[in-house]
Description:
Layout: H1 57-67, H2 71-84, H3 90-110, H4 113-132, E1 137-138, E2 141-142, H5 143-155, H6 157-160
Antiparallel strand pairs: 1-2
Amino acid sequence: MPVMSQAPRYCPQQPLPPYSYVTGLAPHPTRDPAGHSFGRHEARPPPLDEANFRDNPAYLFGLDLFNHGFYWEAHEEWESLWHAAGRKGAAADVLKGLIKLAAAGVKAREGRAEGVRRHARRAEELLRPAHQGGRQHCFGLFLEDLIGAAQSIAASADSLAGDGRADATRRLPLTLRLE
């Protein structure tokens, strides 16, 4: 899959995987010996917070993965941060919102419109409380834009899922940019 030139790289020292995992189209990255991450065991990253997000390689690489269409891989990267955040609280909810946006990308590639819609709506639900609490930004991302993107993705789920067949080239209409 070609890398989109307009998408920024925030962790350029970390190479992107050779393929984006989509069920049925490529080997499972961690379970299949032919998978791009088979046998790799990453240490749990430090918890993400507003003071360190620009220096957190797991967060930055998750942004790179998402922006370049590696949705399953971005989900996995951010899930490690969600666990490091204790899976509860405002930071964990924003991370879970990003995870759900990545899951919507996975479902779009799988051709599953209802999955796209469900994950995008859940992303919005998770992101909204941080914004309603008066925050404009979280971890360098503009919350209002993320919420609007989640709403747009949910509303466009049918077209994003295409003809219902798996397609590893489908992309969400969203690039995550740090402010």
